[in-house]
Amino acid sequence: MEKLHFSIMIHAPRQKVWETMLNDETYRQWTDIFNPSGGSSYFQGKWETGSNMRFIGTDKDGNMGGMISRIKEARPYEFVSIEHLGEIKNGKETIWTKEEKGGAEALENYTLNEKDGGTELLIDIDTTDEFKQMFEGMWPKALATLKTLSEK
Description:
Layout: E1 2-10, H1 14-22, H2 24-30, E2 41-45, E3 52-58, E4 64-75, E5 79-89, E6 92-95, E7 107-115, E8 118-127, H3 129-150
Antiparallel strand pairs: 1-8, 2-3, 3-4, 4-5, 5-6, 5-7, 7-8
């Protein structure tokens, strides 16, 4: 696994950024870029430490795919860590083995820092070579949309 880092400065309070990032309606908007096939993206679960989560998308033909995850840690308005445990392909859930994850935890971390009257959002994600280039293209676009939504 390789760790990717992204950041963006958002001119809004941390609470507003947090709520925009994790509210169902706005979550669907800023994460739309991660489902380029034209279907919808959404989550099932609660943004609380220990909660099981499903990050789900459907493609243009209605096939369901996504991630099986767990909230490793959540500190409202400050930090959330998502541990990805497996995947969903065509509606079938598969939990990864430790070897399939390269011995890593497959984390996706969001850190919100108060800075210069706004919020600095830092993203750290574990990824494989297979998805690195795709994420490097998608994350900046997703964060730009989150910024626009948060600054409204």
